[in-house]
Design a protein that fits this description.
Elements lengths: L2 H26 L22 H16 L1 E11 L5 E15 L3 E4 L14 E9 L4 E7 L4 E5 L4 E4 L2 E2 L2 E2 H4 L6 E2 L12 E7 L4 E14 L2 E6 L11 E4 L2 E13 L6 E10 L2 H14 L1
Parallel strand pairs: 10-15
Antiparallel strand pairs: 1-2, 1-4, 2-3, 3-7, 4-5, 6-7, 8-9, 11-12, 11-14, 12-13, 13-16, 14-15, 15-16
């Protein structure tokens, strides 16, 4: 075979091989075009208010707090003379004023507010959301339980003339609605009362679920609570719709790190609210 022809074939083969290698190298080169950053825009809310919303959110929070009170309940055994003997226990919770005279709160104080033992003396002290005194050492016998739900108590502190006791003491009332008159849905933002051990505040939180347990309508909220916040109100658009019931936390069993927090609120029942409303009508 012609030697020049063989050499030409060898050169051609090397050129073809080089071309294949060049093409292969091009296919594995990293893509140097930058990936555009994805920006997720969050809708304005009272948890993250726009400048236009801030004043309205602050006003709504103040309205909620103004109708919020803290309830201190303490229990003693009566001595032989019927006065305070040995201290037994006590509890603290929050509640919301209704119609100038009622307090809507939870029902797990650990002290039987609805069924007082005659051998015991129970006193109630009420403070406003700032911790300022409203009523001090009021005997529980002066308070009437007018409605009891699985997770809610409504206490009547009485009316003097045509004015409820809380109204007389300068504590305003909130507006209330029952759960069946609303269409609360997952993802809605509500105002939830919590406290720091001294003063109450409002947390703006999302509804995670709307459910019912043993016939009791409940809201699961994406927020943990401080002990003593039970009974504090949950408000939607400034209207009381539920009261704090439980706070729940889950932890990593190995590290002890907090994984999740949520709370459950008992939604207002139309039966309880109607009882309190009927009492007000009868008193007037």
């Amino acid at each position: 075979m012609n030697r020049n022809f063989v050499l030409s074939l060898m050169v051609l083969a090397q050129l073809l091989l080089l071309g294949c290698q060049t093409e292969l190298n091009q296919t594995v080169e990293p893509n140097t075009v930058p990936t555009p950053e994805v920006v997720v825009e969050t809708a304005p809310s009272c948890a993250r208010p726009s400048e236009e919303m801030k004043a309205d959110c602050d006003a709504m929070a103040q309205q909620v707090l103004s109708a919020t009170v803290r309830l201190h309940v303490r229990r003693w055994q009566k001595d032989d003379s019927g006065q305070k003997g040995e201290f037994v226990d006590g509890g603290v919770g929050h509640g919301t004023v209704k119609d100038g005279r009622y307090l809507v709160t939870h029902n797990h104080y650990g002290i039987p507010l609805a069924d007082v033992d005659n051998a015991e003396l129970i006193q109630v002290t009420v403070k406003n959301w700032r911790g300022e005194m409203v009523l001090q050492d009021m005997p529980l016998t002066a308070v009437t339980v007018v409605a009891v739900d699985a997770e809610t108590l409504i206490l009547d502190f009485g009316q003097y003339g045509e004015t409820g006791l809380f109204e007389m003491m300068g504590v305003p009332s909130a507006e209330f609605q029952s759960h069946d008159s609303l269409s609360l849905q997952v993802g809605m933002e509500v105002a939830q009362v919590d406290w720091d051990g001294e003063t109450a505040h409002v947390d703006w939180v999302l509804v995670e679920s709307v459910d019912s347990e043993n016939g009791v309508p409940q809201l699961k909220l994406a927020n943990g609570l401080t002990e003593g916040a039970s009974g504090g109100g949950v408000f939607w658009n400034g209207v009381h719709v539920a009261n704090n019931w439980t706070s729940n936390s889950s932890y990593n069993q190995q590290t002890g790190d907090l994984l999740n927090q949520f709370s459950v609120a008992a939604a207002n029942s139309s039966q309880s609210l109607s009882v309190a409303s009927a009492q007000t009508v009868n008193a007037s």
